[in-house]
Design a protein that fits this description.
Shape: globular
Radius of gyration: 20 Å
Mean pLDDT: 91
Protein name: EAL domain-containing protein
Number of helices: 12
Organism: Pararhizobium mangrovi
Bound molecules: ligand C2E, magnesium ion
Structural class: alpha/beta
Strand order of the largest sheet: 1-2-4-5-6-7-8-9
Distance between the termini: 47 Å
Domain EAL: 24-273
Low-confidence stretches: 1-5
Length: 278
């Protein structure tokens, strides 16, 4: 009602805002009482080499289906889990599931898992992650942990300690959503970073020469720092052609495949004997 009466006014804003808060509270309450083991699942999205289209790795993406709320996206529930202190527990549940899928994948494929800033700065969570890797029996070098710049910059020294510990174990570290934060590259060479994931905003408006130049500059930067460069959000043949021409290493996006239920991808890959059978 407020919307119809006064679009864009303070009334409209506060009504929207209030309903958003109410929804967040409902989601938080559901998250607190949910059977997370049963309701959380992992989708996998292929990441493929630009050069020959072979499968490089898969990214684990969390999915939540709740009996009352239906399906809730990670952009929503991860933020709520972070705010309400549930993230560390959630991370452990998701990470164990992801490791389980990794164990079923062909040996030459790695798995990327997203860590929250709150995981990185929580010593107990980092130790649990290390313990879960050991228990799983998978080679640590088949694991990539994705961190955003914002997560790393929030508490650089704590982040560095955690990253060093994981890196010494053999785990690869990726900088996720690169280009959305302050992109302060002065710290990159001081941290154990192996890969950079260019945010999908880089892929927008590539018809525009200055956007194309930006992609080229970002890829060159990765090359000069000897970091593997992965482009996110690749949806079109034009975007893919651009990545080929600038020498980007790998890409991820709907142009190749959407995220799919982990079991489906594992079944496809084991049937196709290691080649991507999508
Ligand atoms: P992200 O790590 O940057 O993951 C990539 C997101 O881009 C995924 O959204 C994926 O579905 C989407 N995407 C992939 N290809 C394309 C494309 O071609 N076009 C477009 N428009 N989108 C594409 P999703 O699955 O909704 O996840 C959103 C974010 O939620 C992730 O962004 C990540 O930050 C967070 N997230 C997901 N799973 C987890 C998790 O297990 N733990 C934590 N801490 N965060 C997670
Ligand atoms: Mg990611
Ligand atoms: Mg990303
Ligand atoms: Mg993102």
């Amino acid at each position: 009602r407020a919307k119809a009466e006064a679009p864009g006014s303070a009334v409209y804003y506060s009504a929207e805002h209030e309903s958003e808060i109410r929804q967040d509270r409902a989601t938080e309450a559901a998250l607190r009482t949910a059977d997370l083991e049963a309701e959380m699942t992992v989708h996998l999205q292929p990441i493929v080499w630009v050069k020959d289209g072979s499968l490089k790795s898969v990214e684990a993406l969390a999915r939540w289906t709740n009996p009352e709320l239906g399906s809730v996206g990670p952009d929503v529930f991860i933020a709520i889990a972070e705010r309400s202190g549930l993230i560390n527990r959630l991370t452990k549940i998701l990470f164990r599931k992801a490791l389980h899928h990794l164990a079923d994948l062909p040996e030459d494929i790695s798995l990327s898992f997203n860590l929250s800033a709150y995981d990185l700065t929580n010593h107990e969570t980092i130790l649990s992650i290390v313990a879960l890797i050991r228990q799983s029996g998978v080679r640590p070098d088949r694991l990539i942990l994705e961190l955003t710049e914002t997560a790393v910059m929030q508490d650089l020294e704590t982040a560095r300690t955690a990253m060093d510990l994981l890196h010494r174990l053999g785990v690869c570290i990726a900088l996720d959503d690169f280009g959305t934060g302050q992109s302060n590259l002065s710290y990159v060479h001081k941290l154990p970073i192996d890969l950079v994931k260019l945010d999908r905003s880089f892929m927008a408006n590539i018809d525009d020469p200055s956007s194309r130049n930006l992609v080229c500059a970002a890829v060159s930067l990765c090359q000069s720092l000897e970091l593997t460069c992965i482009a996110e959000g690749v949806e079109t043949a034009e975007q893919f052609a651009l990545l080929q021409s600038v020498g980007c290493d790998a890409y991820q996006g709907y142009y190749f495949s959407k995220p799919v239920p982990a079991a489906d991808l594992v079944a496809d890959l084991t049937q196709a004997n290691g080649s991507v059978g999508l």
